[in-house]
Amino acid sequence: MATPSIPRWKRIVFKPSGEALAGASGQGLDGETLDATAREIVAVREMGVDVIVVVGGGNFWRGRQGAMAGMDATQSDHIGMLGTVMNSLALQDALERAGQITRVQTAIEMPRIAEPYIRRRAMRHLEKGRVVIFAAGTGNPFFTTDTAAALRGAEIGAQIVLKATKVDGVYSADPKLEPTATRYSKISFDNAISQNLGIMDATAFALCRDQKLPIKVFSIFKHGALKRVVMGEDEGTLVYA
Predict the structure, then answer these.
(1) Which end of the chain has the least Cβ crowding within 10 Å, N or C?
(2) Pairwise CA distance, residues 131 & 134, whole Å
(3) What Å distances lie between residue 83 and 5, 57, 80, 90, 146, CA to CA?
(4) pLDDT, tens digit, for every residue of 82-95?
């Protein structure tokens, strides 16, 4: 089969986890991984694709861990939001060193280091060819960055949410525990729910399903995977309505 010559998706939400930006350790930030991720984004942007990025913060802090240790859950989630800001600024730096103009917008205002989230301003940045990174999740506790990716994707008119993880797709079972588990090339929202596959948290997943916003799950560690996904190749797993 011939390789597609034009991108399948023209406006994407790229959702790397915080741990994915940390490299093998899963903690903090890894310079080589950041630079490699930036190159992947630039390669897609050079094809004329609008790129929105929503980064997780689990490499610095997980809200649940703080809450489980006795911390107030809202306070813990606010700390997690700051972790996403650190990741966003680091990725912005990597992108701009790679020659890609980038703007960070935060759901919690911190005007000395980033713009506040303003939908129309974000749309204008995309029209000018800039990559836009949304930080601090939705700005509310009890909502994950997966939900932020789904929400911003719906607001900005994205065609798909690309969830980059440590695994190369959605499997019928945990491939680490079940060697015979098979990777789905595609699966419907309803089938994913019935099999309890846990692709995203329930709020994010329901929002994508209701907005008919497909999700693609793939590995951030496979060189060129983001570009192959955008071109519509058989990379990862497509979750569709």
Answers:
(1) N
(2) 10
(3) 38, 5, 5, 11, 15
(4) 999 999 999 999 99
